[in-house]
Amino acid sequence: MRLLLFSDLHLDAAFAWAPRAVARRRRQALRDTLVRIVGLADEVDADAIVCGGDLYEHERFTPDTAAFLQATFGATDRRVVIAPGNHDWFGPGSLYVHVDWPANVTVFSEDRLAPLDLADGLTLWGAAHRKPAGTDGFLDGGFEVGRGGVQLALFHGSERSGLPFEEDGKQPHAPFDAAQLEAAGIDHAFLGHFHRPKAAERHTYPGNPDPLTFGEDGVRGAVVVDVHDDGTVDRDWQVVARSHVADIEVDVTGCASAHDAIERARAELAGRQGAVRLTVSGELAPDAEFDLDDLAHVAPHLDAVVVRRGRLHVAYDLDAIAAEPTVRGQFVADVLADDGLTDDERERTIVVGLRALDGRDDLEVA
Fold first, then answer.
1. Element (H or E) spanning 127, and its range?
2. CA distance 255 to 264
3. Residue 327's Cα: distance from chain center in Å?
4. What is the pLDDT of residue 190?
């Protein structure tokens, strides 16, 4: 049995970090990726396409989304099986309820694992989230498959050992322990929720197939899964996105002017594609009149440049200034001696104060 697994596409995502026109293009890119996933299933001759949830976002979907999914899944003769997650939860207002799905599409609708026969001797157990939060673990309560043959599972859930190091802010929706799979008689589970891909012994997270934000790492996409007669699997990740999202850092140390910093950033961004989050770090010369907004338009060939401040400092010689018999020398000495300030507060206070004493309007660096 060959399956094509994906999850966490998040159709209609807001892309709050992007300008409006860019966000609209990113949402179209997600649709294009789903079309490629369905096409890939034909290319690799998959027996079924299985989705581990968060196919779309419940709060934002439109009738156009419903029509797109109906047509896209109806364009293949491959079986399509979906286990709704916490973002595309199954309920009265769900897209899943209102679409007249073609015969090849199965959507799990109960908040408990239910069996679906994929082939003789091969069962796929699936479940759905029926609310956006608070779903209990599908393997809790001593669940057991109670039948022979190869037993697979498809659901949207949080493997507990992954919670401490997975993406910030991830909530433990439908949590479970990896050991529960073997205890339940599940040979392998295909999962959604964690966006970072993972190939564990008995479970697989494919990762979101198209970039959703910055800072994503690991090869992610759709996974070609060959299921063997003993329940073991071979997995091959296939990149299906054509979008590019990158994190770039530019060090402005030594830049004597805003022009120097802009040129350094422009060089870092040359040849890049898609959207970039540019982190600005380093030490600026005290006389540089620099604002992070100056960098937002340095690479018009990119879809978007999102600029943020890293460890950015002004290269003042504070010890030398504190030793001066001047007002500014006394000011710096007093701030350095103030134990009630954090390092960041102390630095900001000194920079703003020194620039004010110099009569400058740009009191804060970036």
1. none
2. 9
3. 50
4. 98
pLDDT above 90 covers what percent of the chain?
73
Beta strand pairing call for 48-51 and 2-6: parallel
Counting other chains too, the contacts that 321-328 makes at CB distance below 8 Å and 24 or more residues apart are 321/354, 327/357, 328/353, 328/354, 328/357
Amino acid at 244: H
In this predicted model, what pLDDT tens digit does every residue of 215-232 receive, in sequence order? 998 889 999 999 999 999
Mind listing the pLDDT tens digit for each residue in 233-274?
999 999 999 999 999 999 999 888 889 999 999 999 999 999
How do residues 189-206 score in pLDDT, each as one tens digit?
999 999 999 999 999 999
Please report where in the chains the tokens 């961004």 appear, as a residue: 269
pLDDT tens digits for range 128-181: 999 999 999 999 999 999 999 999 999 999 999 877 655 555 667 999 999 999
Is residue 169 within a helix (H) or strand (E), and if so which, with residue range?
Answer: none
* pLDDT score at 141: 92
Beta carbons of 127 and 82 less than 8 angstroms apart: no
| Amino acid, res. 360 | R
**Structure-token pair, residue 275:** 């959207």
Q: Please, are residues 83 and 53 in contact by the beta-carbon 8 Å criterion?
A: yes
Q: For residue 55, give every residue at least 6 positions away whose Cβ sits within 8 Å of its Cβ, in sequence order, or none.
A: 7, 9, 10, 11, 69, 82, 84, 85, 88
Tally of CA atoms within 13 A in the half-sphere of 109 that contains its CB: 9
Closest CA to 9 of 204, 211, 171, 238: 211
The pTM of this model reads 0.85
Question: Token pair of 205, please?
Answer: 């997270």
Tell me how far apart the alpha carbons of residues 146 and 128 are, in angstroms, rounded to a whole number: 20
Secondary structure class of 207 (helix, strand, coil): coil
pLDDT class of 124 with cuts at 50, 70, 90: very high
Q: How many residues does the chain have?
A: 366
How far is residue 250's CA from residue 263's CA, in Å, rounded to a whole number? Answer: 10
Q: What is the 3-state secondary structure (H, E, C) of 246-315?
A: EEEEEECCCCCCHHHHHHHHHHHHCCCCCEEEEEEEEEECCCCCCCHHHHCCCCCCCCEEEEEEEEEEEC
Residue 58 identity? H
